[in-house]
Each structure stands twice: as structure tokens, then as C-alpha cells.
Amino acid sequence: MDGFNIAIPRSTLPQVAAERLRALIIEGILAPGARLNERELSEQLGLSRTPLREAFRLLAAEGLLLQLPNRGVQVVALSREDVCHAFEVMASLEGLAGELAAARVTDADLDDLKALQADLEKAHKRRDLPAYYRVNRAIHDRLNAIAANPVLAQTYRALNARLHALRFRSNLNGAKWDRAVAEHRSMLTTLAARDGAGLRDLLVRHLHAKLQAVLDTMKGQDKE
Amino acid sequence: MDGFNIAIPRSTLPQVAAERLRALIIEGILAPGARLNERELSEQLGLSRTPLREAFRLLAAEGLLLQLPNRGVQVVALSREDVCHAFEVMASLEGLAGELAAARVTDADLDDLKALQADLEKAHKRRDLPAYYRVNRAIHDRLNAIAANPVLAQTYRALNARLHALRFRSNLNGAKWDRAVAEHRSMLTTLAARDGAGLRDLLVRHLHAKLQAVLDTMKGQDKE
DNA sequence: ATTTGGCATGTTGTATACAAAATGCAAGAT
DNA sequence: ATCTTGCATTTTGTATACAACATGCCAAAT
What domains can you pick out in chain A, each with its CATH number? Predict the structure, then answer.
């Protein structure tokens, strides 16, 4: 019997630092394009430069930071094209998650998702955008969990982190929001029918719609 | 006029170190599961522990190394399941590459690919496995280049590195090899027809076949 | 006036020293 | 004999010192 995992979760200082930085980037406190001073940041975070530099390398590998030799790191500023490319990949990954989930989903899973869907619609009716985002994310996470592919989950998570800063700000307007909720509803029925290919298509289209929403909010502010 | 990129490519020591380590891992000189001693390795590579540790973090982010707090790093040993999961994702990404490539491919591209296909068949006829792998990789790289999605290319590359060590050793037997070559032929005609969905399916199936070949060679040597 | 060269300053890159944690071994207790 | 406990050694984690590089300023020359 060792179904229990009692190991106390320890993470290294660089990992913790990376998490903090990730949050700061996503919240926009560290703005895209901003150059990060090692000494300054290390003092603010209360650690030395060495673990901070390892955190930098982590985030650079994830694609959140850009490392310029002898010129330090800066927060990546995504161009409109970058966003399109990232969404193309995200859509494909999410489609795969759907396909896998359809093959493996249990009735219990479906019940959970139905509950989440109800929450989603509630948030939508209340026009509570933060709550909507939270539930939305929970649903997509759940789908990934059902897909039960850790490699997929990790790849997806890494990519998502890069875009999260943007999505955070993409304020859905009425029509698009309604449509997104409707799409979620059909996703659920498609999943219940165990229609993998159908769910895949739906998710891909769903993400393409999301891309449009993001691109709309990006309009004007051209970054490269 | 600045279509030229004259910037002399400089890389940091950690990046160079990471490349070396990646090569050593892929070639199997650093065996899966092996624990890497920082001091020892840094002396062998001729650098200090600091840049080496940053290289470790890079490779850990890529999924080639596993970091255990206060217990250093070790080369990841992929279980059969890990390989299946990775291939599922790879297949999806390669499928996306095919889909995109079909939409963007030019006649010049097709000519290049035809030439590569000829090389592939030659290598097959000669039963020259190393050459076959080389050309095979060139074809897949070319496809990714045509797809023109840097995010996809990077994601694909990272995942591929994790599996390369395995594929290296997967010795195709006669029947599977013949089939792979045939699949490549139909890929080319499907691409020429600009049939994105068709090419996607083909590539996904192609990779599933590859997975089977890899799993076969893994049989027996159970690692977890 | 503009440009170029050198210098001063600040910032990153690498090495090393020190601290903390883990590992292995041996001695003692049960 | 086996298991535990404490110590010595090894190894990793963090901080800091030093070196290399980049940047901005000022003076001098054209």
C-alpha cells in the first residue's frame, strides 16, 4: 500500500523565483520588453544573483524571457504573428486533448464537467469576467487531466504561460462571449457522445475564435 | 535594405554546455538514469559549476534532465508510457506541420522535397540506415520550415530531443522500413495536392507506426 | 557642428568560497 | 546478528568576489 504520496513537496529556490517572476510577468508588473536588472531584482526578491540567474534560464527555456548575451534578459514582447503561431499550436494541442479525453472520459468525469459548465453559465449570466476566466481555465485543465497525457499537459502549460499575459486582458465583448459559452455547451455534448474527432474540430475552432478576440484587443498596440 | 542578417551569432557558455550535454545524452554516453556530478562534469567540460548549473536548468526545462532538490540532476529514463505520451503529442504537432505546409507549399518546395525523397529511396535501396535517418530528418525539418511556424518548430524540436536518444537505436526491420518509405511517397503526393487534412492524417499514422517500431526495440528493457 | 576615440561606470558572466543537506560507514545498543 | 544513531565525507545550494563586456559621456579633432 503506497497509494499515498506523503513526500513533502520541496522546490528549489530558482523554481520558486521562477514562479514569482512568471506571476509578475503575467500580471503585467514586469512589462513586455522590460529589461531585468539582476542585482536589483535579486535584492527585491531577497536572494542572490546565482539562483535568480537559474530562474532566468528556466523562464527563457519556457519562452517568457529572452536572453541577450552580455546584455541580460528582457520580458518577451509578442508580435501579432507570434500570437497567431502560438495559437495554432495551442489549438492543435487542445484538439489532441479533446480527442484523447473523448476516448477515456468516464461518466463521473462528465458529471464534474457538467457542474463546471453550470458554473460557467452562471458567471456568464452575472457578467462576472474574472469568475468566467477561472471556471473556463478549470474546464480546460479538467479536460487535460482526463486526456491523461503528462507530456501534453506540460507542453500545453508551457505554451499557455506565454499567452496568459495577453488573454488576461482580452475583454470578451457580448457577442463573442455568448458564442464561447455556446461552444462550451456543444463541447460537453460532443464529449458525452465520445466523438473524439468532433471534439477535436470543435476545440480547434474554439481556439481560433479566442485568437480573434485576442487579436482584436491587440489592435493598435503594435509590438515587435 | 536589411534583408541580410549579419549579426555574428554569439552564444553563452551555458547554452554551449547544454548543447554538449544534449549530444552526450542523445549518443547515450550519459546513460538514462545516470546521476551527474557537478564538480566532476564541470572539470571534464572545462568550466565552473555556475554555468554548468544553468545548463542543467535549461535541459531540465526541456525535459532531458530531472532535478531532484539537494540531490542533483539525473538523465531522465523514459518509461514505455512516457514514450507513448510523447509520440501522441509529436504526432499531433507533425500533423499540424503537414496541415500548415499544405496551405503554404510552393512548387519550388515540392521540387526540393522530391529530390530528398529520391535520396531517401536510394538510402533505402542501399540499406544504409544512418543515411536514411539523415535524409528522413531533413525531410521532416523541411516540412516544418514550409509550415513557417517558429513556435511549432521550437516545440517540436524540444520534444524531439527527448526522444532522439531512443529513435537513434530503433532499428527498422525490413517490412516496417518498406512501409515507412511508401508512406513518405504518399505524403509527397498528398502535399502536392495541397490536401492538408489528408497529409495530417498520414503524418499522424506515420508517427504511430514509428512509435510501434520504437516500442518494439524497447521491449524487455523496462525502465521506470 | 559633427564625429570619433577614449575613459568611467554600470551590468553581466564566471569562478570560487562558504553553508546546508545528503550519503555512507562504523560503533554501539538491543 | 540486526538495527539504530552519530559522525565524517561528499555533494549540492547560495552568496560573493573578480573579470569581461556594454554603455554613456566628454573631449578632441576634422
Answer: 13-75 (1.10.10.10), 80-218 (1.20.120.530)
